[in-house]
Amino acid sequence: PESILFEQSETALSDLPAHAECHKSHSPYKGESKERQHLVFPISDRQGNTRSFFECYTGKLDRERLTLVESTLAVYSHFICVIDESEKDILTGLLNRRTFERSMTLLLQPPESESSSLLEHRSQKNNANHECWLAAVDLDHFKKINDSYGHLYGDEVLIMIANFMRQSFRYSDH
Known about the structure:
It is a single chain. By secondary structure, this protein is an alpha+beta fold. It has six helices and four strands.
């Protein structure tokens, strides 16, 4: 079988009707031709938001094998959720400090100490003259917001800033 796994943000869903249907219904898409099946499975986070898709073109699958594929992808989806939650701040959903430090360590490692898979990943990203940048955000007088209005309002400010950042940066900018 041919298969592909990709992030939702990589391609417009309007260009992929099977993925759009899968995203809208929150359930797998199953299309068939005479000899092959086209399967698209959503990979969702704990909130039910589709984060990516697993797409597969395969020979005809009987119900038992299709159930096996669906069950395996459900386990995979839960595994992705666990990894996702360990890399993100629980309040804002932004990448956490541990993920930042791990990414910076990998980025700053000299090429001779890299594993072959990391070297291949870095060379793929650098093929397009990929430049790196770092942005730092400081919320002036944030302590005053917490002290004056309470932590609930402070949390709301952090969530609003995180949403603004998410809208302003691409997924691939992390």
